[in-house]
Amino acid sequence: MAAPAQPKKIVAPTVSQINAEFVTQLACKYWAPHIKKKSPFDIKVIEDIYEKEIVKSRFAIRKIMLLEFSQYLENYLWMNYSPEVSSKAYLMSICCMVNEKFRENVPAWETFKKKPDYFPFFFKHILKAGLAETDGEFSLHEQTVLLLFLDHCFNSLEVDLIRSQVQQLISLPMWMGLQPARLELELKKTPKLRKFWNLIKKNDEKMDPEAREQAYQERRFLSQLIQKFISVLKSVPLSEPVTMDKVHYCERFIELMIDLEALLPTRRWFNTILDDSHLLVHCYLSNLVHREEDGHLFSQLLDMLKFYTGFEINDQTGNALTENEMTTIHYDRITSLQRAAFAHFPELYDFALSNVAEVDTRESLVKFFGPLSSNTLHQVASYLCLLPTLPNSEDTTLDKKFLLELLVSRHERRISQIQQLNQMPLYPTEKIIWDENIVPTEYYSGEGCLALPKLNLQFLTLHDYLLRNFNLFRLESTYEIRQDIEDSVSRMKPWQSEYGGVVFGGWARMAQPIVAFTVVEVAKPNIGENWPTRVRADVTINLNVRDHIKDEWEGLRKHDVCFLITVRPTKPYGTKFDRRRPFIEQVGLVYVRGCEIQGMLDDKGRVIEDGPEPRPNLRGESRTFRVFLDPNQYQQDMTNTIQNGAEDVYDTFNIIMRRKPKENNFKAVLETIRNLMNTDCVVPDWLHDIILGYGDPSSAHYSKMPNQIATLDFNDTFLSIEHLKSSFPGHNVKVTVDDPALQIPPFRITFPVRSGKGKKRKDADGEDEGTDEAKTLIVEPHVIPNRGPYPYNQPKRNTIQFTHTQIEAIRAGMQPGLTMVVGPPGTGKTDVAVQIISNIYHNFPEQRTLIVTHSNQALNQLFEKIMALDIDERHLLRLGHGEEELETEKDFSRYGRVNYVLARRIELLEEVKRLQKSLGVPGDASYTCETAGYFFLYQVMSRWEEYISKVKNKGRSYEEDMEIAEGCFRHIKKIFTQLEEFRASELLRSGLDRSKYLLVKEAKIIAMTCTHAALKRHDLVKLGFKYDNILMEEAAQILEIETFIPLLLQNPQDGFSRLKRWIMIGDHHQLPPVIKNMAFQKYSNMEQSLFTRFVRVGVPTVDLDAQGRARASLCNLYNWRYKNLGNLPHVQLLPEFSTANAGLLYDFQLINVEDFQGVGESEPNPYFYQNLGEAEYVVALFMYMCLLGYPADRISILTTYNGQKHLIRDIINRRCGNNPLIGRPNKVTTVDRFQGQQNDYILLSLVRTRAVGHLRDVRRLVVAMSRARLGLYIFARVSLFQNCFELTPAFSQLTARPLHLHIIPTEPFPTTRKNGERPSHEVQIIKNMPQMANFVYNMYMHLIQTTHHYHQTLLQLPPAMVEEGEEVPNQETELETEEEAMTVQADIIPSPTDASSSSSQETLDFQSDTTPSHTEMITSETGASSNPDTIPALPEITTTVAGPVSAPAEANTPQGATSAPVETK
Fold it and tell me: Beta strands of 1200-1245 (E only): which ranges?
């Protein structure tokens, strides 16, 4: 197998290179935003840039990147565009800039929306240029750029400006491009279309000739483009050299065709045009397909296009076609061919009289039609309206091969999509894993196109939706598998031994050499299938490894996935492995096959089952695992061996590789998606079209739902009647009781429900009738019945005063339908979610709610808040592995709940015993739940009924007394109700059965992560799991498919889904799901969550608009990204928000960091970016803050790259990590990892000095800016970031303040100074990092000396003068000399001068080795030092600093607690 060439990584230009560029000089003269006096517009500038910079460099990405980054499009090209100045260079420049914006994944159409007037003119010129001759004014490379621009237009139909232009190309009038006979045939099929067609003709006659000509050109555009493409394709030779421009043009054209076919609005009329042009036949017969290297990607794209042209959908109605309907269409085609043959072609009688199944294979069709002449074939095709009729005396100009392929490919039997899918192996093999067109490397630049499905706004059918997601999910996991295989196999160092075998020179933790491999079972296939039902094999390995690694191998569980690998190295023993060269040829990798563990075998050869029993101890080091192989793959391999004489793959394996369990769930998710495609997956009717991206996007909003609920009990949502009135501004609130004393929560509210589908009735004048009624809310306070005499009977209450938008979100969530809540940072998303859950629980006690989140952490936060509300904990259940992290004593996992039920049962039976005793009833009523039930029925109920009949109305206090009595009875009744519910746990004996019963019957609120839902769908459906409502938190961080699967965790009832509500809470302005491979992330748009897609489609959202996390000034750095995000009152009122940050002049500051020792950013490994100057500066500021008295755990250090994170952690380890005066920050991590968390003070390092990098994604900027509550300090190269167009709103505020750090060293923490006040202490300006480092060092030494003098003074005072409670240090513990003290200091923190020469690896492995006695002396009970001489010395920092790191060091970073700092006295 040939190893693919490694793609080159695009190196972004540095700031100095940017400044030296001709483009940058022009930008500074004509359009740069920071230049005040700009030169007037000059068309020659555009011509020059296009010819000299773009065309001359052959459209080099680097040049286009510079232009786009300089805001060329926004500030020069489009701003000055008009028909008068339009030229070829102008058009091409705009297209290049738009394409670059799409490549960079930044918004592209905003500029055009601001000035839309000339866009139609511009677009028409693009169309004209697209059809120009290839050897004319526009070169083929330029036309490829135009094709890409058009593709972006067709994929941006949600933009009104684009849609209005594109629609004219793809609507019904485009059928003008069909040949007349075909047009007639199509109109005959659908009579309704003929009416429309006649109408179009009438309208055309009314047009003036010029407009008609223009309209005709637009309608025929795509037909003409296809013809032009066919002529380019035919010019490609079979074996002579071909220019890559032609190949790229052909690839981009097929990509455009795929995108048109894969969207219903573009496909509807275009599919017929495409079919009529026979494009696929031309392509499959072309020379390009048969060129092995150049045509490989083209062939893959062609297969995708073939798949979509024959997709199982009715083009006009958009309905999915069933298996039967597809078969009927196929039979109609064959029978019409047979009829034509019978009537007109005597030589085809045999064909005409055969049954369909006999003649619909490729072989039999070629047998019947192959002998016919070209003219006869042409006549057959023209009878079927596939080609124009052939005049009698003329011969056909078409090739016989083409005519035969046209008839055969159209009529051959197709294997159905679902059959193809079921026959597909789920594990990737070596052919897919290292195919660059399908699984590109991390260096994907966004330039070329790929044979990958795209996730855009719309999908053809649910099948198409699932299939695209299936393929992408499979390939994304394949990419991760490739990384794992390359890592493990290269560590094992396979070399060729002297005798030609394999010898392993290294070892890997995750892989082992295979000692023996045997297939032990191949089970018979199911009826109608040709692959075995299961294939099992035994793999033997020798575990001569460390104990903990041995335990990991022995701990492989059922369903864990492993990979079997064959290597045949050709390199001799001792050859060095080079990571930069292709992997396959170096290790000689031949085969990769996946397998699933069934279990390890014991001494007797039986599988050791997972269970509570301890595993048997096996002797020796040889271990055998029984594994399941993929039956589909096995069948394909065996067929290949038998038919083609290939070797048996299963005799060759010599390595088995395992993966980390967390990353290894891909097979279960793929199986789930495949099962969904095989079942009739029923999505609720009200959601179906929205999920596919069609119809009215607001149709699932509660205001348009037919089953809207008029009266809702808001329970404890409102704190008072005033709170309720302020929550519905613009509404008239009518309370049913007038007495203010009775107007107390809880409230029931009756809303005006609109009649019909959201349309109000209008009276004769057209005025809205009853506008007042539509705004009137009827509020009814009600009293919760007394629950019993004990304090724990009182319900827990909500204490949060929700804002009116939060109330709207809660109201929408309680109503049936789809609710989307956009929650900017700090707006109380979780509180809203919890209140919705609580209100649904109380309003609809019989309904069950499923909670789904992206992370375990979010699920746990949600659960902790749910428990604080009035929800009975027996109704809560938490599935998955995250329940261990819940910060409560209670266990909400399945088995935890079973134990709770059993323990509660015993408690309640004890209560019954007490009650029985107090009533003096003999017998043992408290033996089981059943006996307790009889006791309640015959003893308790009879007494209660007797009591009720005897009590007569005795005055005013009667009602109050009766209420108390009823409360007591409710308490008793609840005991027996619960016991009745727990009765099942007496009947079910095993823990598993009890837990299943809880899940299916008892729990009302079930929580899990989206991954768990995808993994366990099969089991949940099998159990008969049911639910009515879904609430999703962090919805914008969940993969599209992982959001969709939770909708289908239950079987439909009578063909309908019982789902009533779907509430999604998220923020699409923050970071999307993590996709490791750039190609899937950018090209396939796999990072788009369902939440984001719904927002793009236009589904109505409730946007929370008041944040309570950060100071108002910090909020301004990101609130421009949201509609109207304001602040909650407490942000202005609370002292912590109004007080300044001690020792720092500003509450936020951007600090410019220049190169340190001539170096800015560095890159020890690909994408492992570091910046030593910034890392040292950040740590120095952290130490300064801690020395002032800031608690270290209130400070977090964030950065935008993993490399910098590891470098900062190492510097902290060296400088201050083990120093009790300073300690460690709360977290040192990346911005992406810190999403969803917050801290008071954030120090942020942006790392890059050459190119902006991925911070250009505004979502990452929003997350970075919104993590801090009180202080944000950003370290960056200002000249780079301030020019970035997307980041302007934030960086214009940041650069308005000084770019050097302003500190107030004499102001201790906490301060009384108000934020924004001039300080009374002296302000010091820090110019650079070395100055700050030295300053911190001197400050530290001064602190030690001050403390030292203070202690000396204390020692000299007579005992009476020492303040009470102050401890006098014992002189015996003092060290004899200062030299001895300094040796202790050196022990605690080494000086960097000693370590600067050591390698970076030593930097990593450094751990301070303090002896116990030293540690005791350093930290007294208060955490501060009681002996000044033993406080650790801080290393002096001048120009020597810890070297950059090139490998992660997380394992060496102890996150210890910090100690309280010493105050100077």
Answer: 1227-1230, 1239-1245
Which of 1277, 1386, 1328 has its CA nearest to residue 18? 1277
Task: Yes or no: say if 850 and 1031 are a contact pair by the CB < 8 Å rule.
Answer: yes
More confident residue, 37 or 1380: 37
- Per the CB < 8 A criterion, the answer to whether 1301 and 1332 are in contact is yes
**Ramachandran region, residue 44 (left: φ > 0; alpha: ψ -120 to 50; beta: rest):** alpha
Length of the chain: 1465
Question: 1262: number of CA atoms within 13 Å, CB side?
Answer: 20
pLDDT band, residue 1423 (cuts 50/70/90): very low
Q: How many helices (H) and strands (E) does the chain have?
A: 60, 30
Q: How confident is the model at residue 16 (pLDDT cuts 50, 70, 90)?
A: low
Rounded distance between C-alpha atoms, residue 372 and residue 394, angstroms: 17
pTM of the model: 0.84
> Does residue 1430 surpass a pLDDT of 50?
no
The string of pLDDT tens digits covering residues 1110-1128 is: 999 999 999 999 988 999 9
pLDDT at position 589: 94
Q: Under a CB-based contact definition with an 8 Å cutoff, are residues 1044 and 907 in contact?
A: no
339 φ, ψ (degrees, to nearest 5): -65, -45
DSSP three-state, residue 647? coil
CB 1368 within 8 A of CB 1355: yes
Q: Is 8 helix (H, G, I), strand (E, B) or coil?
A: coil
Q: Which residue type sits at 1039?
A: L
Contact in structure between 842 and 797 (CB atoms under 8 Å): no
CB-based burial, 565-590: b 16+ in 10 Å, e otherwise: bbbbbebeeeeebeeeeebbebbbbb
The phi and psi torsions of 479 (rounded to 5 degrees) equal -60, -45
Please tell me the distance from the alpha carbon of residue 1006 to that of residue 740, in angstroms, as a whole number: 40
Q: What are the backbone angles phi and psi of residue 1289, rounded to the nearest 5°?
A: -55, -35
Distance CA 515, CA 622 (A): 9
**Residue 1260: pLDDT band with limits 50, 70, 90:** very high
Q: For 878-935, what is each residue's pLDDT tens digit?
A: 887 654 454 455 666 666 777 777 777 778 888 888 888 888 788 887 778 788 887 8
Name the band, by pLDDT with cuts 50, 70 and 90, for residue 875.
confident
State the pLDDT at residue 18: 55
Contacting residues for 277 by C-beta, under 8 A, at least 6 apart = 223, 226, 227, 230
**Over the range 146-163, which residues count as b (16 or more CB within 10 Å of their CB) and which as e?**
bbbbbbbbbbbbbbebbe
Enumerate the β-bridge partners of residue 748: 713, 780
Of the candidates 1283, 1262, 1281, 1264, the one whose C-alpha atom is nearest the C-alpha of residue 1273 is 1264
Residue scoring higher pLDDT (1290 or 947): 1290
Backbone angles phi, psi at 1270, to 5 degrees: -120, -30
Place of tokens 């022995």: 554
Long-range contacts of the stretch 886-892 (C-beta < 8 A, 24+): 886/860, 887/860, 888/864, 892/863, 892/1007
CA 387-389-395 angle, to 5 degrees, is 100
Residues 270-287, mean pLDDT to the nearest whole number: 94
Distance CA 67, CA 5 (A): 30
Range ranked top by mean pLDDT from 51-65, 159-173, 855-869, 1194-1208: 1194-1208
- Between CA 724 and CA 749 the distance in angstroms is 10
1414 token code pair = 């030293």
656 forms beta bridges with 512, 564
- Report pLDDT for 1358: 59
Read off the pLDDT of residues 426-464 as tens digits, 9 standing for 90 and up.
Answer: 999 999 999 887 888 767 777 788 889 999 889 999 999
